[in-house]
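Exercise (ungraded).
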Amino acid sequence: MVGGMSDVAIGLVCIAGFFGIGLSGAVLGRLRIATPIVYGASFVVALAAVALALGVLLGEAPPSMVVLPIGLPGTGAHFRLDTLSAFFVLVVDLGAAAASFYGIGYGRHEPEPARVLPFYGAFLAGMNLVLLAADAFTFLLSWEFMSLASWALVVVHHRESASIRAGLLYLLMASFGTLCLLLAFGLLAGPGAAIGGTAGFDHLTFAHMRASPPAEIFAALATVLALLGAGSKAGLMPLHVWLPLAHPAAPSHVSALLSGVMTKVGVYAFVRIVFDVAGNIDPWSGLVVVIAGGTTAVMGVLYAVMQRDLKRLLAYSTVENVGIVFIGLGLALAFRAAGQGPAAALALAAAFLHVLNHSLFKGLLFFGAGAVLTATGERDTEKLGGLVHTMPHTAVVVLIGCMSIAALPPLNGFVSEWLTFQAILMSPQLPQWGLKFAVPVVGALLALAAALAGACFVKAYGIVFLGRPRTPAAAGAHEVDGFSLAAMTALATLCVLIGILPGVVIDMLAPLTRDLAGSALPAQVEVPWLSVVPIAQSRSSYNGLVVFAFLFCAALMAALAVHRLASKTTRKSPPWDCGYPLPSPRTQYSSASFAMPIRRVFGSVVFGLTERVDMPRPGDTRAGHFRYRLRDPAWRFAYGPLARFVVRGAQHLNRLQFLTIRRYLALVFAALVVLMLVVAAWR
Amino acid sequence: MAAGTSTFLFDIAHLLAGGVLVLSLMLLVQDRLTAVINVFALQAVVLALSVGWQSLVQGAPHLLVTALITLLAKALIIPTALHRIVRKLDVHREIERVIGGGPTMLAGLGLVALSILVVHPVVETADPVAREDFAFALAVVLLGLLMMITRRNAVSQVVGFMSLENGLILAATGAKGMPLVVEVSVAFSVLIAFIVFGVFVFRIRERFDTVDVNVLERFRGEQREHL
Amino acid sequence: MALILDLPLQLLQIVLVVAIAPLMMGVTRKVRARLLRRVGPPLLQPYHDLWKLMHKEAVVADNASWVYRRAPYALFAITWVAAGLVPTYATGLLFSWSADLIAVVALLGTGRFVLALAGMDIGTAFGGIGSSREMMIASLAEPAMLMISFAVALIAGTTQLSAIAALFSTGEVGVRVSLGLALLALIMVGIAENARIPIDNPSTHLELTMVHEAMILEYSGRHLAMIELAAQVKLVLYFSLIACLFVPFGIAGSDAGPLHLALGILAWLAKLTLFAVLLPIAETSVAKMRVFRYPAFLGSAFAAAALAVFLRFVSRGF
C-alpha cells in the first residue's frame, strides 16, 4: 500500500492512465509528436504497474479488493489484486513497457499512426482490466473490450485484404471464445445467478463462486468450456487458426503484445477459472489439458518450421509455447487432484515461468522482426539474408532470443522446459494408470517440440541473418534506431539473467503456487551455489550460473590457448564449397529447402503433403518447377466441414425468408406449443 | 540371499518374456519376407528359452516339453518351410504394407501400453511373474493381430498368426499348471493350420499369380456382382 | 576441507575427457582400418593432426561473420562442459549436480544449434544442406534421447547422473528389459549424434550424403581443430554416458580413497577402449543409409525407448 491507497486501487489508476493515453492518442492522433508522447507515457505507466506487481509478489501482500459502483445494479464492479493477478500484471506490463519503448522508435515508420495510437492505450488498459476483474460480468466486459481493441490493431492496415480476412476470422474466434467463457461462468455461478433476486447479482462474483463450488460434473464441464474459451485466445489447437493470420498483420510492437502478452491473458483466464474459482477438478480433465497442450506444442512448431513469412513463423511458434504452458497447467491439475502438492507446485511453477519467459523472448523476436522490416521492408525470409553484417546489434540480441526460445541452456527457455520435464517425471506418483502412461508420451511430444523449435530457429536466424543477401533490399539494410535497440537489449538481458539465476524468479512464484496448489517449491535462493532444486538435490538439480560460468571460461581458455600457443593468423579467401562456389546468392539453401527434410518426414502424415517436380527434359530451355502443397489439418478436418455445414444449413434456412404470413404464424404457433409441452414435461 | 536369488530368477524370466515382446514389435516393421521369417524364428527361440526357464523356476518338467515343441516346430521346421515357400514363389522382395512403418510402430506401441494398462489393475493380486507374463502375452497376441491386419502378403499373414500363437503359449506358461495335453493339441492345431495356410498360399498363387490377398477380395467382389 | 579435495578431482575429470578424446578416436580409426585390411594411422595420429591444424593459418571466407569465427570455440566449450559433467571414474564429484541428464542432453543441443548456424553463415549450398539435415536428425533423435532419459530416470527415481550411476553400480536394480531397451536406443541415438555409419560417414567428402562434414566444410586451421576436438570429446561423452548408466561397475563412490579412484579411472579407460573397439566393428558390418531412411532408424530407437518406459511399469519395484 502506498499513501493509504490499496494495491488494487493503484492498479486501477494505472488502467485509467492507459485509458487516458488512449484518449490522448485519439485527440493528438495526426500530430507527429503524438507517437513519442503516447508511447513514452505508456512506458511510464507500464513501469509503474510492473513496480506495483513486483511489490505485491515480493512483499507477499494479502489480496486487496475494491468495489466500484458501476456495472451490474446492486453488485457493482469487483476488482481484486492477488498474487496470481499480480504475476500476470507483471508479465503484461513488462511486455507493455518494452513494446512502448520500442514503439517510440518503431512507431515513426508507421504510415497511419492515427489508427494505432488510440487503440494502443485501450488495448493495454483492457488487458490489465481483465487481470483485475473479480466478477464474471466485469471480467467478460473487459475481455470483450480487450478483444475489440486488439481487433482494431489487427486491422490497422485495412487496405490489405489479408488484414481484413485476419480481422474477420479473429472476430469470429473471439466471439466463440467469449461465448464459451460466458457458459463456463454460468455453470460456476449456479442457478441462483439467473434470477438476480434479493442478493442482486452477487452470484456472479468470483468470491461467491469460490465459496460455493459447483457439482463435480459442472466443474468438469466448466473446465472444458474454459479450455475452449481461454484456449481460443491463447491459441490452443485447433482454435489457433486466427492467430498466425492476426498477429503478423498488426504493427510489429503490437504483434509482440498480441503474441507475447495477450495469449498470456488467455492463460490467466484459464488458471483463474479452473484453478481458483472452480474448486477441485477431476484428475481426468488434467489429462485432457495435458494432451491438448502436447499436440498444440508439436503442431504449432511443425507449422512454424514450414513458414517463410518471418512474423507468421513467430506467431506459430507462440502456438507451440502456449502448448508447453498448458502441458504444465494440465500436469498441475492432475497432481493437485491427486493431492500431490509439491508436484503440482512444480508443474505450476514451470508453466508460470514459461509464461514469463515466453513473453520476454517472443517480444524480443517480434521486435527483431520489426527491425528487419524497417531495415529492409521485407518479412519474407526468402528475400532476406546476410543481415548480420549490416545490423550487427540486432543480430546479437535476436540470436539470444532464438537460443532462448529453442530451449537451449544456459538461457531462460531451457529452465522452464527443464522444470516441465521434471514435473513429467513425477507422473509415477499419480494414482491413475492411464495418466502414468499418457504423461511420459506427452513428455516425448514436448521433446519433439523442443527439437523442432531448434530446427525452426536455426532456419529463421540462419536464413534471415546469415548467408549472403538474397535481394538488393536485404543488401541495403541498416541498423535500426536506438530506442528499438535498447528495448531489444533489455529483453535479451532479462532472458540471460533468468537463465542464469532462475531461482530468484522461482521464489517469486512461491506465493502463487501456495495459493493455487497449496504447496510451493523449496526456497531456491537458499540453495548453495544458487542451483535450482525442484524437489530434492538427490533427485534433480540444475545450475545455470555454474554452467554459464563453465561455458564462458572454457570458451575463453580454448580461444586464448589457441591464439597464444598456436596460430592466430587468418587469411581471407573466397568460399571453397567443395570447389564449386557459385556466385549467385540464389544457390544458397532457402527457407523452403531448409525445411524440406522435416517437411518430408512429418509432412505426409500431418499435413497431407503433396510434392510435384516438373523437370524439363535435356535440351528443353524452359524453367524447372517444384511445387509442394500442405493442407492444414485444422482446416481440413474441423473448419472446412464446419463451414460447409453452416453454409448448407444457411441455404436451407434461406427458404424461410419466402413464406406466406400464414406459414410464419404457423411456425410461431408451433414453436410456442412445443415450448409449452417441454415446460409441462419438465415439471 | 534367498530373496536375492528369486529376484534374479524373476529378472531373467522378465527379460526373456520382454524379449519375445520386443521381437514381436520388430516383426511388425520388417519389410522383407526373409527378414520376417528370421525374426519369427528368433522369437520362437526366445520363447522356447522363456518357457524352459519357467519350467526350471516352477519346477514343472512338462513345460520343458512345451519348450522343445516350440523350438522344433516354430524355430526350425516352420521357418525352414516358409523359406522354401518364399524361394519357390520368388517373393523375397519388399512387402507392401497397408499403412506406413511409422504409424504401424506407433500403433504397436499403443497396443503394448494398452495391454499393460488393461492387465495391470485386473491381476493386481496375482503373483508378479504371472501378472507380467500376462501383460506381455496379451501384447504379443495383439501385435500378431495387428500384423495380420496391416500385411497384404499371405506369407507374412501366416507369420503374424504364428506369432499371435506365441503370445498364447507365453500366457499359458505364466499361468501355473497348464496341462501338457492342451499344449500338445495347440501345437498340433498350429501345425495343421500351417499346412492349410501353405496349401492356401500355393493355391492362391496358382490361381492369381500373386500372394497378395487383396486380389482374393476383388475376386470375391466380382463373383457377387455376377450373381 | 572438502572443497580442497573435491576440486582437483573434478578438474582431473574435466582435463581427462579432453586429454584422451583424440586417443579414443585414434583407436576407432585404427580398428576400422584393420577391419578393412588396411594398416591404418598410428594410435596417436589424431594428436598430431590437431597440433598441425592449430599451427596452420585459418582460411576464412570473405563474407564470414563473427558467428562463423566464434562458433568453433563455443562448440568446443559446450561439448567440453557437457562431457566434464558426466560421471566418468567417480560419482558425486564437486559439480556433478550442476547439470543432470536432461541438461547434458540439452547442452549438446546448444552445441548443435551453434554448429548448424555456422554451417549457414557463408551461404554455400553444402553448408545449408548439412545444417538442414543435422536439424532433421536432431528433431528425430532428441525425443528418443528424452525417452531414454525418462526410462532411466523413472527406474532410478532421479535424473542426476551421479546418483543414477551410484544406484546402478550397487546392482540392486538387476537385469531389466527396460534397461536393455534403453541401452539399445542410446546406442542408436549415439550413432546418429556422433555422425557415425549408418547415419553419417565421418570420413567422407564430396558426397551429397554427408551431414556433419558438410556443415564444417569451409573450416580450416585452428577452427577446424576445435571442431574436430569437440567431435572427439562428444564421442567420449557418449561412451562415458553408456558406461555410467549401463555398466557403472568399478566406478568410485563419492567418498572413495585414492586406491578406489585409481581403480575407477582404470575401469573407465578399459570401458572406453572396449567401446572404441566395438564401434568400428558395428560400423563396418552395415552400410550407410539413404537420408530418408533415417526416420526409420531413429524411429526404432524412439520405439525402443518408449517401450522401455512402458515396460518399466511391469517391472518389480515400481
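Further reading is listed at the end of the chapter. For now, observe: The CA atoms of residues 36 and 140 of chain C lie 31 Å apart. The mean pLDDT of chain C is 87.
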